[in-house]
Amino acid sequence: MIGFRSDIILCILVTMAITIKVPLYGDLQGNPSIKKGIKKRSEITDSALKGRPKQGYCMDIFLGIPKQKLTVILDTGSSNLAVSGITTDPIYFDKTKSTTYKEGDKSAISINYTEGYWSGNVGSDQISFCSSCKSSEVDLSTITKSDNFFVDLNVWQGILGLGYKALIQPRGAALSAPLNSLISGGVISKSFVVTLCGRKNLSRSNTQIFGYVDWYPDKKETYLKTRILKEWFYQIEVTDVKIHNKSIDVPCTEFNKPGAFVDSGTTNIILPPNVFDAVFKSIQDFTKTKTSSNMTLFLQRKESKCYADKLAIFKLFPNIEIGIAYNDTSHFYINVPPQQYIRQTYKSITTGGGQYCFMFGIEMKTSYMILGAAFMEYLNVLHDTESSVIGFTKANCNITEPEITKTISQIQPRQSVCVNAGGDTSHLVITILPPVIIFLMLLVAGAALLSYKYRDTVAAFCCRCCSDKKQLYVSE
Predict the structure, then answer these.
(1) Consecutive sets of 10 residues in the chain, 476 residues long: mean pLDDT of each?
(2) 6 phi, psi to nearest 5 deg
(3) C-alpha angle with apex 141: 136 to 145, nearest 5 degrees?
């Protein structure tokens, strides 16, 4: 998502397969881990999302003819495809070697993030997800200059935004969203499932598989679904936030004002200020019952906490539950255990030293609520653009750590509708604004006609009541 690249924790190679059920290959020992009962189609892509710490969830793509393989961040919170075109980078897209590359607008575009930026040139070329798979033409930017954007060019060389067209940057650019191009080109279906399997068995050097994307999900799979409120980010309605089984004292409209999004490109959970304050207080009160250590600076993300015991810190923090609207009268909860929102630091992963260090994975950066990877991990998240719904099921991530328990509650009644005039009102602009404008135009026109018809009377009245403005009026 635009503005939240700086805190990405893992580069996760997600297995991408055009299958009904996607195979997930590989572990640190190279042993296959394949779901039972999977039958491959004649055309299949087993493109792993490989990764190392602090690199985001990544996937392989193939650009141009002949195909050039690159690894890109998978981001459902943006809508640009951008890859390195800098010839001095260790891995980059060489458009001069592609026979299908087409130059676009000669003017350069630039995209700024909270930290860092990139600029480049626009063009188009063929994209696919394996060396022998079907490809489709897609607009892309070749990055010619960047600052604090690429963390490690040996691991990933760009970003693939799978949000809606409304998120294309810069605004007003005559570009097609990759999502639209991939669907219209028959490379993917109108639904896809993102499965992020978290940080199990983190390695200090080896590339690992941490999940997959299913471009043709099984329609028989049962998901708990919520409607997409607006087609830009994947915006949903959040109904409640519970800390240790107790709802925070914040009206549910505050979770959705101006919006709540599901976003694979954001690592942490981002909360609006008043929601964050309530969550902060509830978690702080809970930790005071578990430890004498002062957790204030940790909860403010101003310091990390280190322990010799990898599991020690998780015992100090509560379970969080996020309520998601099922319809206007009911909702369901998805839990976020401490193992998801207490994030191991990049330094402790890469250097070791007998200490496990962690940072708090909930923060306040914006007025929006963003459910990033810390929420999405251990879930299958269905993005159904045809029916405009997001769906959730528990993922089969082969979790071996007994301390991680991921749950999705049953559907249950709820008290309030949490999206109102304080939340997303874009639909009101379309239906209400034109009649208002027409009424005002008629009112102004009517006043102008009356003032012209009775101009002499109006002039006399003004001269009597506003004598100090008489000469100005007459001179006009």
Answers:
(1) 45 44 25 24 36 63 96 92 94 96 85 82 94 92 90 84 93 90 95 81 50 86 94 97 97 95 92 96 96 94 92 94 96 95 79 82 92 93 96 82 79 88 37 48 61 48 34 26
(2) -70, -20
(3) 155
At 129, list the tokens: 């997800």
Extended beta strands in 258-411, E state:
260-262, 269-270, 305-307, 320-325, 330-336, 342-344, 356-360, 362-363, 369-371, 379-384, 389-394
Rounded Cα–Cα distance for residues 162 and 305 (Å): 35
Q: At which residue do the structure tokens 């009160």 appear?
A: 285
Got the DSSP string for 284-334?
A: HHHHHTT-SS--HHHHTTS--EEESSTTGGGGGS--EEEEEESSSSEEEEE
DSSP annotation of 133 reads S
**8 Å CB contact between 157 and 150:** yes
- Beta bridge partners, 216, equal none
> Which residues, other chains included, contact 124 with Cβ-Cβ below 8 Å and sequence gap of 6+?
101, 102, 104, 137, 138, 139, 140
First to last CA, the chain: 56
SS3 assignment, position 45:
coil
Distances, alpha carbon 108 to alpha carbons 33, 118, 142, 440, in Å = 44, 10, 10, 42
pTM of the predicted model as reported, rounded to 2 decimal places:
0.79
Structural contact between residues 126 and 186, judged by C-beta atoms closer than 8 angstroms: no
DSSP β-ladder status, 412-413 and 57-63: unpaired
Give alpha helix (H) positions in 105-186: 178-184
Q: How many CA atoms lie within 13 A of 321 on its CB side?
A: 18
